[in-house]
Design a protein that fits this description.
By secondary structure, this protein is an alpha+beta fold. Among the domains are: 44 residues, no CATH class; 165 residues, PurM-like C-terminal domain (Phosphoribosyl-aminoimidazole Synthetase, Chain A, domain 2, Alpha-Beta Complex), CATH 3.90.650.10. Helix content is 28%, strand content 24%. The protein is built from eight helices and 14 strands. The strands form three sheets. A seven-stranded mixed sheet has the order 9-11-8-12-10-13-14, with helices on both faces. It starts with 21 loop residues before the first helix and ends in a 13-residue tail after the last strand.
């Protein structure tokens, strides 16, 4: 057993231990890995890449506790399926099968459950991936908040596909498939009555979009969906894994004007706000324009943009070049600005 238990200083689990930031890393690395760690789990990738009978598969699982369960542009059902499909796709795999499990509070309205199931059905029909197993539990009223969902997924990785942050190389171009922070702001404005309207979550299944790219044989070294902690957190995570410095151009990062205005009003930074339909691609520079063209021709990538590049410098820093030409280090976030976002 690893001797990390004494590194975990908290005597109680805090809400920040589940928000995907540095406190989550402390919980996982200094406590959970102490009991369960192994060479696959400790890679901490969204999907585990496993060898099975000389074939590679991607296996992932996720739980969804978003509050509120219905928000503009989506709901907990759509979110759960898209989140798992996207995690599988980030490893370069084609999703094959999903599981779906519900934990439902006693007294939950049947019409709301039907609405969630219809939303799930719509996404599954779009991507043609079936639910093949599941589980349902009902707990006493007030023991959970309405409904929680767990999903798992399995996908197959084609021969020759090697997608991992460890494959990132100097001069790689960094591409995102659309404006950031829309999911987090949608959930926030659905949760609180600020009077802001018209911000739909970007929640979307992106596996077909990724498959279109990989079918062209383009040199894509790493992919990650920018969920909890937003764009800045993914960039910091990948910089740490690859041990290269990233240079990001603020003026190139797409942000919806209304989202930006809401963030300014509330004192939030869109770079750290969750997305559920945005992926970051690290692409060989010779293929960057081709990737950008394919993304822009997909309905989920019309506003794609090259936002930065990987530098030769061996460093874990992410450098943001601001719109006025100054530079600053884009820090890791300590705690999610908006808890229970997915």
């Amino acid at each position: 057993m690893k001797n990390n238990f004494n590194k975990f200083k908290e005597n109680k689990i805090l809400i920040s231990h589940g928000d995907g930031g540095s406190k989550t890393n402390e919980l996982i690395k200094n406590l959970i890995f102490n009991y369960l760690g192994n060479n696959i789990l400790e890679k901490m990738e969204d999907s585990a890449v496993l060898n099975l009978d000389n074939k590679r598969i991607a296996f992932t699982t996720d739980s969804f506790v978003v509050n509120p369960i219905f928000f503009t542009g989506g709901d907990i059902g759509k979110l759960s399926i898209c989140g798992t499909l996207n995690d599988i796709a980030c490893s370069g795999a084609k999703p094959l099968f999903l599981s779906l499990s519900f934990i439902i509070e006693e007294g939950f309205e049947t019409d709301k459950l039907c609405r969630i199931l219809e939303s799930i059905k719509t996404v599954l029909k779009e991507v043609n991936v079936p639910i093949v197993t599941g589980d349902t539990k009902v707990v006493e009223k007030n023991n959970i908040d309405k409904i929680f969902i767990n999903t798992s997924g399995i996908g197959s990785i084609p021969a020759g596909i090697e997608i991992s942050p460890s494959k990132i190389k100097p001069k790689d171009k960094i591409i995102i498939n659309g404006p950031i922070a829309e999911h987090g702001i949608s959930v926030l404005t659905s949760r609180e009555d600020f009077g802001f309207k018209g911000i739909d979550s970007d929640c979307a299944p992106l596996n077909i979009m990724v498959e279109e790219l990989l079918n062209q044989g383009l040199l894509i070294h790493a992919i990650r969906d920018a969920t909890r902690g937003g764009l800045a957190s993914v960039l910091n995570e990948f910089s740490e894994i690859s041990n290269y410095q990233f240079k990001i151009f603020e003026e190139s990062i797409p942000v919806n004007k209304k989202v930006f205005a809401i963030c300014e009003f509330l004192g939030l930074d869109p770079l750290y706000i969750a997305n559920e339909g945005r992926m970051i691609f690290f692409v060989d520079p010779k293929d960057a324009d081709s990737v950008l063209t394919i993304l822009k021709n997909n309905k989920y990538g019309k506003n794609s943009a090259i936002i930065g590049e990987v530098e030769q410098t061996r460093s874990n820093n992410v450098i943001l070049i601001t719109q006025i030409g100054t530079s600053r280090i884009l820090d890791k976030f300590y705690s999610e600005q908006l808890p229970r976002i997915c």
